[in-house]
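G.,

No rush on this.
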Amino acid sequence: MDEPGSKFGQSLIEFGISRQGKGVAMEQERQDKVFEILMYIPPKIRNILLGCIRNSPWEIEEIRLRAGLPLGVSICREFCYVTPFGSIANDCFRAYTVTPEEVEWCFQAVCEHSVYAHTEEIRQGYITLPGGHRVGFAGRAVVKEGRVTALHEIGSLNLRIARQMVGCADGIMPVLFSGGRIVNTLLVSPPLVGKTTMLRDIARQISNLGYATGIADDRGEIAAVYHGVPSNDVGMCSDVISGGVKEEAVRMLIRTMAPRVIITDEVAEEGEFSALSSAVGSGVAVIASIHGTSLEDVRHRCMGYRVLGEGLFSQAVILSLSGTGHDIRTEVVKIV
């Protein structure tokens, strides 16, 4: 982590956000989310996973179906195999083997038995389900003029269970404002630590304060729009463009929706950075995220030096896991 007074940051605040002690209502909500996605899973595997839920005290985060290969789940960011009896195993030879027919069954269910109607989403490699769950695909890519135009012969599915942690951004909300204005902020986090979850709750809270909030949700993970309606609570004053190209979504929101703030996930391309720079130049605040473990790590990544060095962001919120893996530690760092 950058030391106070270093070139890339000065520590302002450090605190922990607990994932434990959520109470009975939160536990029920978690179970409901799992049951929502089990509807799309073949009956035999569904029963196995129900046994897994009963046998494990931890929440399932992802379910992976691979044709001809062992059934797997991610629990607390660790991949595990699942036996035919619903128990967790580290040995792949004890796991239930998923058949190609079961992968196809699940794929058809996710597509609501109308693959043609979901052609564009399949081409992008994922479909968003009601409740905000996301299903990723792998298969044979059809390439035309250097661009993937379709995915055929689907052989792998990754069913990612959506969970909204309302209030997880409570601790950092005060530092997102200065003199009544929203501070341009960059969330920095490794994968699967919670930056999208944090970004979603930031959007919800800022929007509910009455700020027109534009969300460029190119991967559908912030708002999880389904048939035009956000599956996740992103606030009363939010306007969402889902899918498409992030750069174009940012520019379109500025032109058409007059937002006070733009919120988007995982800035990675030159065009995305340019669009966010244009937003700031137009007087619109920006809150975005990027992969990394520290400001120094971000600086050494592609485009990282420009992201930190051109004055677009005033501060960063750096997320990391505690030693137990069940708490998110958050540090707010001034970018100088």
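When you get to it, here's the other one too:
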Amino acid sequence: MASYNVHGGHNRIVPGASSYLDEVAEDRLVSEEVIRLLQAEGHTAYNCTDDSGATQSKNLANIVARCNAHSVSLDTSIHFNAASKDTGNGKTKGVEVYVYSSSSSAKAAAQRVCDNIAALGFTNRGVKVSTSLYVLRKTKSPAMLVEVCFVDDKDDADLYNKVGYKAIAQAIVKGILNKSALSGSDGLADSAAADGNWYYYKNGQIAHNITTVAKNKNGWWYVKNGKVDFTYTGVAQNENGWWRIVNGKVDFNCNSVEQNENGWWYIRGGKVDFGYTGVAKNANGWWRIENGKVNFDFNGIAQNENGIWYIQGGKVQFNYSGTADVKVKVSGGKVQM
């Protein structure tokens, strides 16, 4: 496990920017949550925030002294930006992250953090290089300075208040650790726990009541009672649809007819296509599909891109040759296949 320094900028004696948001109040919330999440992942996280420096220079010197007291993988400085007051125009000014040089080893994490915060809806201003920022110049470890959003832009403030400081902190920590889900937040962990299981977390706890299909950095997985079930092969659902699962993982290459406890389903690109009605195949034959599901009660003729087929019990009868006494649906004089 790694070690990290984290701090919020400024303090109440030498405050930062304030308008629709108060920088000092918010950077403390975000930085403390970042520390909590890093620790929940098993890492060491030092709080290097300074609340005693009576001048700007002393505040910065105190922060850097605390940072340099530890040997860490990364220093992360949390700030909120300011420009001219904007009462709202429907566009956020957005997020940006600073590093000391384009070759800084902090740059990759900075880019991930910037992209993650932008994914919450903020304009992505990108990673920028600055050799003038004191914290970036004076810290011994690689460092990045995060400007979360603009305190004096109403659109930024409204979006920040909507998503909340915890979502910002999660975006930062996911970027630092290069993970898509955290043990201290919601979602499927990227790696196995000590007992070998991949767990789904809710509010930092294993969610034993969750059964779903969820994503981590390794793919999409079938989660049963809070952990990935690598033994499961079938069709499972989440809020986005029903998915073909093979050995616990979504098979996006599947184009077939597959089974779960609710029936047999037409799969296209790994997902049940509830909009499909026609004839589709799997290893066992060709089947009548209606609204994505095999209709085993169907007796008649049906069509797909390869022709018109004679079907009994929901299955194309390839061994049959002759005449068929079947009923067809007619609308406006046209046979409905």
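The mean pLDDT is 92. Residues 297 and 313 are 5 Å apart (CA to CA).

Enjoy the weekend,
O.
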